[in-house]
Write a structure and sequence with these properties.
With 124 residues, the protein is mainly alpha-helical. The chain has one domain. It is 77% helix and 0% strand.
Length: 124
């Protein structure tokens, strides 16, 4: 359970960061485009932080493949949310070309989690 504990701790920190980014975007940023970027990044980071908890649940039910999903969810969150937040805070817009890599990582994480869930053995 060592690695799962690390993923769960990182997921909780991801949730904390999502709330902080969302709050700062709502109250500390005036530009509407910057607010939208921060809101989108915070939302996706929160959803994928919670997805790590789902992956831990599936893994605890015997879905060993679900242990592969957290790096994709959290790495995707770092890239997706990180680039949007950076642009909202003034980084060059060319950084937006990197954002889809985070989105692709989210998709891979969901695919891996789905396969792991479908492979679970029935308890009945």
């Amino acid at each position: 359970m060592g690695v799962e504990r690390i993923w769960l701790g990182l997921a909780a920190l991801g949730g904390l960061l999502a709330v902080a980014i969302g709050a700062f975007g709502a109250h500390g940023v005036a530009d509407p485009q910057a607010k939208a970027w921060m809101d989108t990044g915070a939302t996706y980071l929160m959803v994928h932080s919670l997805a790590v908890f789902a992956a831990a649940l599936v893994a605890s039910q015997g879905g060993w493949l679900a242990r592969i999903a957290p790096p994709f969810f959290l790495g995707g969150g770092a890239i997706f949310c990180g680039t949007l937040t950076a642009m909202a805070l003034g980084a060059p817009r060319i950084l937006g070309a990197v954002t889809p890599i985070g989105g692709l990582m989210f998709l891979v994480g969901w695919l891996v989690l789905a396969v792991a869930a479908f492979r679970l053995k029935s308890a009945a």
